[in-house]
Specification:
By secondary structure, this protein is mostly helical. It contains 5 helices and 2 strands. A two-stranded antiparallel sheet has the order 1-2. The protein is flat and about 85 Å long. It starts with a strand and ends in a 6-residue tail after the last helix.
Length: about 120
């Protein structure tokens, strides 16, 4: 939701009978961002906060949430993800796993590609 600031075009009390209230006199507030950006947290950060939250005494848990700008619902969701093993899975590198040689058909296919690029032809041998 964006807030708007009305621009004063006339002295107070002077009205234009043909103008609708605030029609065309509003401008966007420069201090309010156009679109809120959703925060993202890394798996490492989530695990650190969960460990710190679990180790904190009763009175310090709220202070931790306020200091980090978090809600208790974050802690609940992150615990569920941690217990399900999702946060551990996020620690592994992204992308395809490296192959160690593959099957015979994969090696055959790579040999075909090599011979195709070496000869400069686009036909399969």
């Amino acid at each position: 939701m964006t807030s708007k600031v009305s621009a004063l075009l006339r002295a107070p009390g002077v009205v234009d009978p043909g103008r609708v209230d605030d029609a065309g006199t509003e401008r966007r507030d420069p201090e309010v961002p156009e679109r809120a950006k959703r925060r993202t947290f890394t798996a490492k950060y989530k695990l650190e906060i969960l460990a710190e939250y679990d180790a904190a005494p009763e009175g310090a848990k709220g202070a931790l949430l306020r200091r980090e700008g978090l809600y208790s619902s974050h802690i609940v969701e992150w615990r569920k993800a941690r217990d399900a093993g999702a946060l551990a899975g996020l620690a592994s590198p992204r992308g395809r796993p490296a192959t160690t040689g593959g099957t015979a058909s994969a090696r055959d296919l790579s040999g075909r590609r090599r011979s195709r690029t070496a000869t400069g032809r686009n036909r399969v041998l």
